[in-house]
Amino acid sequence: MPPDTVYVTIVREPSAHFESIYNYYELRRRFKMSLSEFSLINKMHLLRKSFGFRVRNPQLYDLGVDGKYSQNKSFFENEVKNIDQIFDLVMITDMMSESIVLLKELMCWQLRDVTTFKRNSRIDIWRENELSVKVKEGIKAWNVGDTILYDYFREKLVKRITEFGQERMKREVNLLEQLNKQLFEECVLKVQVSRELPKPFKHSSTKVLGFRLKPERETNLTCLQMAAVPSSYVKHLREKQYEWIRNKKGRNPI
């Protein structure tokens, strides 16, 4: 990447993230127990077995740290500090509006450039909305690396918001939410199971919701891009990159 590349990522509260993974990937079938049961049992015996990256500290794994088997908090703390050296901004999902405002500021964009729809929300039968404090603590203790990651960058984000200005942030968040609502009402006819929608709005999973556009907005580029599933939009971005490479290098991308 060019030397002036800006690196951004997103971190989610560990118990909410693990709940999503446990239910979306149906890990209860593997462990033959509910998430609540899994969170409360002694899982140290699992550290002597082979298991996939989603089962423990999955967010660290996505950021290049294999912390599936480690119990060493110092190891995780050092790795988080290394991650901090890479990224210009680490956004937090439960402070998403504030994170987006800071992203806008970092990139010298306008609020209209960062309007969003909430994507890939799971259908209610595939989520557990009410986890007890004890269950949440059990999840965070198991995902100790992700917990250290989240706590570190949430604290850092709060400091950045303070530096940005609390009242200024409140104004910008309110305006951003108004713009999001305005665009949603302009584009979307209804929210429904994504699998029932046509491409490029159709997700391969039956567990998530998607957006059906209003008939008069089906050819509107902004509405199309806002409602497209991630895989469709990534394909669109890749095609743009390939075209740039062909024009710049005079050859097809490898």
Please outline what is shown here.
This protein is mainly alpha-helical and 254 residues long. It has helices at 14-24, 27-31, 35-40, 58-62, 73-86, 96-106, 133-142, 144-164, 166-187, 221-227, 230-249; strands spanning 8-11, 89-92, 188-193, 209-213.
Describe the protein in words.
The chain has 254 residues and is mainly alpha-helical. The chain starts with 7 loop residues before the first strand and ends in a 5-residue tail after the last helix. It has helices spanning 14-24, 27-31, 35-40, 58-62, 73-86, 96-106, 133-142, 144-164, 166-187, 221-227, 230-249; strands at residues 8-11, 89-92, 188-193, 209-213. The protein is globular and about 55 Å long. The strands form two sheets. A two-stranded parallel sheet has the order 1-2. Strands 3-4 form a two-stranded antiparallel sheet. It is a single-pass type II membrane protein. Belongs to the galactose-3-O-sulfotransferase family. Its main location: Golgi.
pLDDT average, as an integer?
92
Number of helical segments?
11
**Oligomerization state:** single chain
Domain module tally:
2
Low-pLDDT ranges: none
